[in-house]
């Protein structure tokens, strides 16, 4: 199972780095070359495809192949993204700006699209006992991608020029393709070619799952308030008098490392205790992290308190995001993995984009402490919702925490790390 986990973790990493570089790293290069604030702001629209994952999931779920349904989709889309990154490397920052926007938008579409079959493949191949660990690894990969995409790639660009980041990102994708090609989808390959028919989209069936409605509300609200606080953390640190370089190290590098570690350790804790029991405690931890940050800003506390609060917030983000990603896998039905994952991912991204807008308005109206207090109040409501959703989560994950060794002993067989165990 670890071979699969590492492969999917690497795929999440190499798919996330291009989007983060284009959205968070490249604007600095654009500004150096005379792009206006409006042009840089409009360039952020290249991240819009993430909202429409539920539509991109339809062809992935509908059109099947006897040689490996999700595997072939993932291979094709990752290859196209790598080729597009190579094409972008042949342009220049001084090239036609509309052309650069078009290439970046196409890269955003392909990265978002490829994420769907990759996650659907993970849901299909990983047994239930491994899904929460997969959520932790995915969350850790995204934190590390943020460090690389918004930091390391800028250094690469400064030292080796415009082409280097794009070629490195393309190489990372191409490196994963042979390993992805060796995977086998047992339940698809078991079907005869004439039995492979287009699958019907059944979003209504997703909401008819036991506990799905409460889960959707938790999915919509569990992460965005933490994400909004993290988005405004750097400006808040600057307002508190912290030097720019220190802010970059604390919030950029240190926060990413803490978030990645919390993702892995949080997933391990959930595996030991079960998600139904841990979910409310993770939300309480998120509330405590926000309260610590609110206190540090309101009291204009020392730098060490502010740094400690920032790391608490990063740890809460890592633990909560790993839990959310893991539970998304449990609420994806068999034979509908792509559609169900795409729908949940769209809802997750939608609130993650909308909440910071409201938080920004609250910041302008009530100041930093008022904004953080509002986020704390909203997170308190999430804690109550998490308590109410425990039974729904327990229903979705029932039977998922039997040790693999016990299952193997009972069956007298040793499960393969490559073929599906479902």
What structural category do the secondary elements indicate? mainly alpha
Query: Helical segment tally?
Result: 18
Order of secondary-structure elements: HHHHHHHHHHHHHHHHHH
Q: What is the first-to-last residue Cα distance?
A: 13 Å
Radius of gyration: 22 Å
CATH topology assignment of the largest domain: Growth Hormone, Chain: A
Q: What is the CATH top level name of the largest domain?
A: Mainly Alpha
Taking the sheet with the most strands, its summary is: none
In the CATH classification, which architecture of the largest domain applies? Up-down Bundle
Helix content: over 70%
State the low-pLDDT regions, or none.
187-197, 402-422
How would you portray this structure in words?
- There is one protein chain.
- The chain is an all-alpha fold and 422 residues long.
- It folds into two domains: 1-192, Growth Hormone, Chain: A; 201-399, Growth Hormone, Chain: A.
- It contains 18 helices and no strands.
- α4 (69-89) packs antiparallel against α7.
- It starts with a helix and ends in an 11-residue tail after the last helix.
């Amino acid at each position: 199972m670890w071979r699969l986990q590492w492969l999917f973790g690497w795929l999440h990493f190499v798919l996330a780095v291009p989007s983060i570089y284009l959205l968070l790293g490249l604007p600095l290069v654009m500004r150096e070359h005379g792009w206006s604030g409006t042009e840089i702001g409009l360039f952020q629209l290249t991240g819009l495809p993430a909202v429409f994952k539920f539509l991109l999931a339809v062809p992935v779920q509908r059109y099947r192949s006897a040689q490996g349904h999700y595997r072939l989709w993932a291979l094709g889309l990752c290859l196209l993204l790598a080729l597009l990154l190579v094409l972008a490397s042949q342009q220049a920052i001084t090239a036609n700006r509309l052309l650069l926007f078009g290439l970046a938008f196409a890269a955003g579409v392909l990265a978002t699209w490829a994420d769907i079959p990759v996650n659907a493949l993970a849901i299909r191949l990983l047994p239930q006992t491994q899904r929460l660990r997969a959520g932790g690894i995915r969350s850790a990969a995204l934190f590390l991608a943020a460090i690389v995409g918004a930091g390391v790639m800028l250094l690469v660009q400064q030292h080796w020029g415009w082409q280097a980041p794009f070629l490195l990102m393309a190489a990372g994708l191409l490196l994963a393709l042979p390993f992805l090609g060796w995977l086998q989808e047992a339940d698809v390959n078991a079907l005869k070619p004439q039995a492979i028919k287009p699958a019907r989209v059944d979003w209504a069936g997703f909401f008819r799952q036991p506990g799905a409605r409460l889960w959707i509300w938790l999915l919509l609200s569990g992460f965005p308030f933490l994400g909004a606080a993290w988005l405004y953390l750097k400006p808040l640190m600057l307002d508190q008098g912290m030097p720019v370089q220190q802010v970059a190290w604390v919030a950029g590098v240190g926060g990413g490392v803490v978030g990645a570690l919390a993702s892995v350790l949080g997933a391990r804790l959930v595996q030991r205790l079960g998600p139904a029991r841990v979910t409310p405690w993770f939300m309480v931890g998120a509330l405590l992290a926000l309260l610590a940050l609110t206190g540090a800003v309101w009291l204009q506390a020392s730098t060490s308190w502010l740094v400690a609060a920032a790391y608490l917030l990063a740890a809460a983000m890592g633990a909560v995001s790993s839990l959310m990603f893991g539970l998304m896998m449990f609420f994806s039905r068999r034979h509908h993995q792509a559609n169900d994952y795409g729908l949940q991912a769209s809802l997750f991204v939608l609130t993650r984009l909308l909440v910071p807008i409201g938080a920004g308005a609250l910041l302008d109206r009530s100041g930093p402490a008022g904004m953080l207090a509002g986020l704390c109040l909203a997170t308190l409501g999430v804690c109550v919702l998490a308590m109410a959703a425990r039974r729904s989560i327990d229903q979705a994950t029932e039977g998922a925490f039997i040790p693999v060794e016990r299952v193997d002993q009972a069956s007298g067989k040793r499960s393969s790390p490559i073929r599906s165990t479902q």
